[in-house]
Design a protein that fits this description.
about 300 residues, alpha/beta, Rossmann fold, five-stranded parallel β-sheet, 10 strands, about 45% helix, globular
């Protein structure tokens, strides 16, 4: 595929390389879900966003600590609003009209993700913003305000050191229970224009500086320049959705291609190519399904799938 002329970002290979036997846990912003969707589609073993989409580093750090420990959620951890029960630690997709069912869903996902973390080789953390909201009644940072009264919260921009402390604590916790874990840090390229471009840039700068510090603190922490790839290399608006803040599918596909080049070793890339070939074959719509030619095609595809 050809793209508009651009300045190409040099990306160093990630080591250890990703292999198909490696489990992956992905936590963070909506961009984490975009990349995770590619990994899942290519048949990697991925557990994605067990708390739902998370944007700020305090909530992401807290999520890591809760996964590393044996916390289970109870009735004191949820609240009722407009007929639905919510958790301030979770995305709205966990909301439910029945409190017990919501808690059962949350704890089931938590238990599954906790086991996935223990078996994982990689944790992908995608940071969205250094802005946080905290609940006045408890003083705790929330992952989601769930459209509650704005007077119930306060908002501020974290310092680089506060971002670093939140993530460092979470990384230490997960490394303690899984010493072989590797952490891949990324910063979402989505601009938060509601903050204004200046404040959005300052927020991203704090995240980027914290990522640099975490790399220096931990040998198992690696930074992957998704933010720079999209904002600098793909800086034309042809790579963004209408509105100019969210990368479009073309940009996401380019990020995926570069990630494959730098993260997968030669054998894994070959295996990925074979899987993609089978996927194309499976999606093929036959003009004459009953023909002998199509029956041979199906048998060949089934044999390749089995192999």
């Amino acid at each position: 595929m050809s793209y508009p002329i651009r300045t190409v970002l040099t990306i160093q290979p990630l080591r250890p390389a990703l292999q198909y036997e490696d489990g992956i846990l992905a936590i963070g912003s909506c961009f984490a879900e975009n990349i995770s969707a590619h990994l899942i589609d290519c048949k990697f073993k991925v557990e994605m966003n067990p708390f739902g989409i998370l944007f700020n580093p305090v909530s992401i750090g807290n999520a890591l600590c809760m996964l590393a420990n044996k916390k289970m959620y109870g009735t004191a951890d949820n609240f009722l609003s407009d007929g639905l029960w919510f958790s301030y630690d979770h995305h709205g997709r966990f909301a439910h009209p029945d409190s017990e069912q919501m808690l059962e869903q949350i704890n089931t996902v938590l238990a599954r993700s906790r086991q996935a973390l223990r078996n994982a080789k990689w944790v992908i953390l995608t940071l969205g913003t250094a802005h946080v909201w905290w609940l006045n009644s408890s003083g705790e940072v929330v992952a989601n305000c769930h459209k509650q009264d704005a007077d119930a919260f306060q908002r501020r921009l974290l310092s680089k050191d506060e971002v670093l402390a939140s993530l460092n604590r979470g990384i230490q916790e997960i490394t303690h229970i899984n010493p072989s874990i590797e952490v891949l840090l990324t910063v979402s390229p989505v601009r938060y224009t509601r903050d204004g471009l200046v404040d959005s840039s300052r927020s991203k700068a704090r995240l980027l500086l914290a990522c640099e510090a975490l790399e220096q603190l931990h040998s198992n922490v690696h930074y992957y320049p998704v933010y720079e790839l999209v904002i600098d290399e793909l800086r034309d608006y042809v790579f963004f959705e209408l509105g100019g803040t969210h990368p479009n599918q073309l940009a996401i596909n380019i990020v995926w291609e570069r990630l494959v080049e730098s993260w997968l070793d030669e054998d894994t890339r070959a295996q990925l190519g074979a899987i993609e070939k089978i996927k194309r074959a499976i999606s093929h719509k036959a003009l004459h399904p009953a023909s002998q030619k199509h029956q041979v095609f199906k048998q060949k595809t089934l044999q390749e799938l089995q192999e």
